[in-house]
TrEMBL record:
Record organism: Paracoccus halophilus
Protein name listed in UniProt: prephenate dehydratase
Enzyme Commission code: 4.2.1.51
Keyword terms: Amino-acid biosynthesis, Aromatic amino acid biosynthesis, Lyase, Phenylalanine biosynthesis
Domain spans labelled ACT: 203-280
Prephenate dehydratase domain location: 9-184
Recorded metabolic or biological pathway in which this protein acts: Amino-acid biosynthesis; L-phenylalanine biosynthesis; phenylpyruvate from prephenate: step 1/1
Pfam families: PDT
GO terms, molecular function: prephenate dehydratase activity
Catalyzed reaction equations: prephenate + H(+) = 3-phenylpyruvate + CO2 + H2O
Amino acid sequence: MTDATQSKVIAFQGEPGAYSHQACRSYRPDMEALPCRTFEDVIEAVRGGRAELAMLPVENSTYGRVADIHHLLPESGLHIIDEGFVRVRISLLAVPGTQLAEVREAMSHPVLLGQCRGFLRRHEIRGIVGADTAGSALEISRRGNKSLAALAAPLAGEIYGLEELAADIEDRQNNTTRFLIMSRQPDFSRRSNREGDGTMMTSFVFRVRNIPAALYKAMGGFATNGVNMTKLESYMVDGVFTATQFYADIEGHPEDANVARALEELDYFTSSLNVLGVYPADPLRARQLAQAG
C-alpha cells in the first residue's frame, strides 16, 4: 500500500455495513473504509501505517460507554482529532421479495435486539442472536430464507443486497453513538468546527495521588476557573481495586488561560496526566444545548 493510499484509508471495527462504517461515511466520506476484526486491530492498522485514521465508538446514549475502549485509548499511542455522533437507525432487512408477514425470526447483535422489542412483539417476530449487526445482514443474505431477517443499519442492506421491510423501528428515537476519530499525530491548531463554532474539546486521562480528598481537590481547579467538564468516568487499571484511572472531557483548549490554569492545578494532585486529544466540538453538542435551553 502506497503512502498516497494510506492517507485515504480510515479503519473501523466490524463488517462492512456496521454503524462504525456508517460513521466513516458520514465524517470521512472521501476516505476508503477498512474493516477490522477487533478494536485492537483498528488501532494497529493506524499504528502500522495501513490506515491514516481510526474510527472508534466510545459511548452510546442508551447503553453508556463501550466496553474496554477507555482501557485501549491511553495505550494506543493515537490522538483524538475529531468526534462524531451517529444516530442509530435500525431497519428490518430481508432477502428481496420478502413480505413482512413472512418474517418469523430476526437476527442481530443482542444490543440491537433489545432496542427493537416493541416492534418485534407487535409483529410476533422472535429475536435470535447474531455475531454483530452487519454480520447478521451478511448471514441473512447468504441463507436466502424469507422467514429470517436481520436488524441492522440501512447501509448493511445496501451492501448485501437486502430489502428494507421496515425503517426506524428502534424503541428509542434519540439513540445515538459517539465516535472518536484518531490519528498518529495530534492536531492542536484548529479553533473552530466545520460550522464555525469555536467550542473546542480536550480529552485526557489521569490518576490522582494517594492523598485525602485528592479527586475533590483536583476537580476544584475546573470549577474555580469556569471550565465545563462534560464527562468524568473512572475505571480500574489491570483489575486492581486500588489503581483507578479517570477519563475526562472538558470544553476548551489547553492554550486557553482558564483551561491551562485548571490543568496545572490538576497536575499537582495527580500521579499521571495524559492528554488524549484536542478537537472541535461536534455541532450536535450546540444543537442539543439550544434545545435543552
